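Side project, low priority. Logging it here so it doesn't get lost.
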Amino acid sequence: MATTTQPGPLTGFTIGVTAARRRDELTALLSRRGAQVVEAPVLRIMPLSDDLALRQATERCLAAPLDYVVATTGVGWRGWMSAADGWGRGAALAEAFRQAVVLSRGPKATGAVRASGLGEGFSPGSEATDELLTWLLARPLAGRRIAVQEHGIRLDAFAAALRERGAEVISVPVYRWLPPDDPAPVRRLVEQTVRRQVHALTFTSAPAITALLATAESEGLREALLDALSDDVLPVCVGTLCARPLAELGLPAVFPERGRLGALVRLLADTLPTRGRRELTLAGTVLTLQGNAVLVDGESHWLSPRGAAVLRALAEQPGRVLSRADLLRTVWVDAEADEHAVEAAVGRLRAALGPHGRLIRTVPKRGYRLAAG
C-alpha cells in the first residue's frame, strides 16, 4: 500500500543498514530524511566484559614492561580501557602505557589516547596502519614488547612483520566480530540487493563488507551481488579504510571526507537524488520520479519497486505506447509473469498515485502510455 508524505531528500529510496553498533542512530538519521531502511546487521560484537581473550591479552600487557603500544581506533581504545576498569586493572594498564611509547592511527585514536590521560609518540597523517608499521620497523625491535590494539579484524600481517624483527607482540582483540544470532535478515538483504530493491548499502566497518560477501557466496549470489554494487546499488562507506575491501574488488564505493555517521548520511542525501531522478510534465502536472516515489504538489507517493519500474519505463518517452509484452521484457526481466501481471501492476500503480493515476492512459488493444504535454 502506497503512503503519501511530505518529501525529504531521501524520499523514495530504500537503504540497507549493515551496522550492528550505532545501528539505531544511523537508521534514525536516514529515516528522518525520508528513506525507508532495511536493517540487517551482518555481524555482532562480543561484549567486552565477557571476552576472555581480551582479558588474557590485558594481563599479558601487565606481566612485564611494554616498549610500544599501538592504538588503531578510538572506540577500541576506549572500550579496552573501560573493560580494564571493570576488571579493576584500569589504573595499572594506564601506568604501563605511560612507561611506553604510544602510537595512534589517526585523529580519533589520538583523541581517545589523550582522553585517557596519555600522549601519543607518533601518529601518521594518513590514518594508515602501514605508516605505523614503517615507523616501528625503522627502530631496533629485538626483545621489545609491543601491544597492538585490534578492532574487529586481526592484524596478523602487521604482527608478523614485527615478530620477524625479534619483537614480542601482544595482539589485543577489542570488539571481536561474531556472526549474527539470526542470519535470515542478511540473506534477505543480499536477495533484495541482487533484485535492485534497495538503492544503497551503508557500511561502517570493513568486516561488515567481508561478511556480506561471505553470505552472498554461501547463497550462490556473490557475482550477482558484485554486479548490483557495481551499477544500480550504491555502496556507501564511513571512510577509506572501511571501503578498502570494495576498492580491492574494483567497486566504486563512495565515502565522506570525515568518517562520521552524520557525514555519511549527508553524502547519501547529496548523491542518491542525482541517480535516476527525473522530472516530467504530464497534462500540466509536474511529477518527479525519485527512487520508488513520485513527488507531486509537495507530497510523496511511495510505490512498490515493481510499480516504480513500470512508471520509469513509461517515462522514458512520455506519450509513447508500451505494450504489455514491452513492459514484461523491461520490468519482469528475471521473473516469470504474464500479461495479467502487467495489468495488475498498472492498476496498483494508478491506485498508489491517487488522482494522478489518470495520467497513465490505456490504449485499447495496444498497451499503456503517459499523458504527454
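Brief comment: The domain at 48-177 is CATH 3.40.50.10090 (Rossmann fold).
Revisit when time allows.
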